[in-house]
Design a protein that fits this description.
Length: 108
């Protein structure tokens, strides 16, 4: 081993020992490909975050149109009308039940 932790192997050309550059190059390629992959993931996440903020801001500034507001008002009026009919029907049923109970002398 050399003083930097690399594996030492014999150099056939000079007869001495040298550093295993193949292993170091493979490790460096492994690290760099991982760093590039993480960088791409981080950039995509940041881009999605910016896109969502842009969309929220666009929707906040646009607000509902007059047609949308009118449509929502009509829908709510229809719902109120239906609920009013249900309340009237329930009151009539409860009123009929009260008169039947009082007519029978309280016995159920």
């Amino acid at each position: 081993m050399d003083r930097w932790g690399g594996r030492v192997r014999p150099n056939h050309c000079s007869g001495g020992y040298g550093v295993d550059w193949d292993g170091i190059g493979t490790f460096a390629l492994f690290l760099s490909s991982g760093a590039v992959g993480l960088g791409i993931i981080a950039l995509k996440a940041y881009g999605a975050r910016l896109a969502s903020k842009l969309e929220v801001e666009r929707l906040r500034r646009a607000g509902p149109t007059q047609d949308e507001v009118t449509e929502q008002m009509r829908y709510l009026e229809d719902q109120i009308h239906r609920l009013t009919e249900r309340v009237d029907f329930t009151e009539r049923l409860l009123g009929d039940a009260d008169t039947e109970t009082s007519d029978s002398g309280g016995a159920v």
